[in-house]
User: Fold this.
Amino acid sequence: GEDVEQSLFLSVREGDSSVINCTYTDSSSTYLYWYKQEPGAGLQLLTYIFSNMDMKQDQRLTVLLNKKDKHLSLRIADTQTGDSAIYFCAEGMDSSYKLIFGSGTRLLVRP
Amino acid sequence: GAGVSQTPSNKVTEKGKYVELRCDPISGHTALYWYRQSLGQGPEFLIYFQGTGAADDSGLPNDRFFAVRPEGSVSTLKIQRTERGDSAVYLCASSRGLAGASVEQFFGPGTRLTVL
Assistant:
């Protein structure tokens, strides 16, 4: 079955790195995504990775994928207060296009 | 703006009433998706359109929910005989819908539906 799990909450100090973790169950997932949701705002696509990749880096963001363990992580370097939001991990497959989301991780950045 | 827009932003209705929620996708995007997000949860897939046709409606919870996209652009999600459990934020997303290039789904701000 399809299931995506994330820890509920993470608190870091401004300037530190944040690591948000996600596990998924469907080995046929083709793409894995990270979305950001700020209060009252829609979902913003941060980055995504194809399942045949191990790592993707985009400025302050680094995505690591361990396909064997079905584990995905998002590292945010030099975390800023503006990074405070809920981060959603999602999986998608070529065959269906629909995204399966986790419940989200609330990131709080302390000054 | 060039993003996905949804109207209304908020809708309050009474149990048993009929509601329509509208989504305007990004111009040129052939794929359109509806998701529902309950409080404290991630979005859950409802239905996916490719052009005018519903390619996958497996996420619609029951036959009270229906969606249309008659001209392949604007879509309307229709909910009949609303129930309190339908209260949620309804999100619309669109993507280019081309093979290999449809991975990026762009979301609208959502419609918050409250059923009293």
Observations:
- The radius of gyration of chain B is 13 Å.
- The CA atoms of residues 39 and 88 of chain B lie 7 Å apart.
- Chain B has a mean pLDDT of 92.
